[in-house]
Specification:
The chain has 244 residues and is mainly beta. 11% of the residues lie in helices and 34% in strands.
Length: 244
Amino acid sequence: MRLVEIWRHPIKAHGREDMSAFEIEAGGTIPLDREWAVAHEAAKLNGESWVPCANFSRGAKTPALMAIKARTGGGVITLSHPDLADLTFDPDCDNRIFLEWIAPLVDPSRAAPTGIVRAADRGFTDTEFPSISLLGMASHRAVEQKVGRPLSHLRWRGNLWIDGLAPWEEFDMIGRELTLGTARFAVEERITRCRATMANPETGKIDIDTLGALEDGWGHRDFGVYLSCIAPGHVAVGDVLVLS
């Protein structure tokens, strides 16, 4: 059981970035993962802490967002999409140019994005607790087999990808602890999936009914598990997953 890929999503639902390693604090998230999110005109923000994902623009409502890639560095983020020219900007300052850039991807029937907000003390994860997602390559291959065609695993927007598990074995780890590198994590709960996973991460177009495949094949809409960090440390691609 080995860690084969690490991904983060600096602006929630607006781009993915691969990593080779990271440092994490107890009770923390992967640095810069969901550090920012895009609020929409119906959002109810408290200005201080985490709020649910319904307050933000996301791939479940706007599939085209799934094709965005991100690169961070030097205090700026570069976003790329197959239908747009690249945009390099400071998400803490340049909301106007971001909103102009994202406008062609936005469904006019949905609540319009109004600007980027930064998390006060933790990432805007999809859970009320600071979380990191762990997914199994074998489970993804099981879904591919079910639908009868290759699928990009990036549609699941996971943080940590593990190879060497049996299909769905990650569900059996709930309630246990694991070590990756020098960091330690508690395995908290399954991840219930939404329509965002139906979109191809290369094109941003819906191309497969992933939710139907999960329900038909296994009787649920779950893929991957959420972890919480209980001891700080260094995590890198190639680290062995040790269960306790």
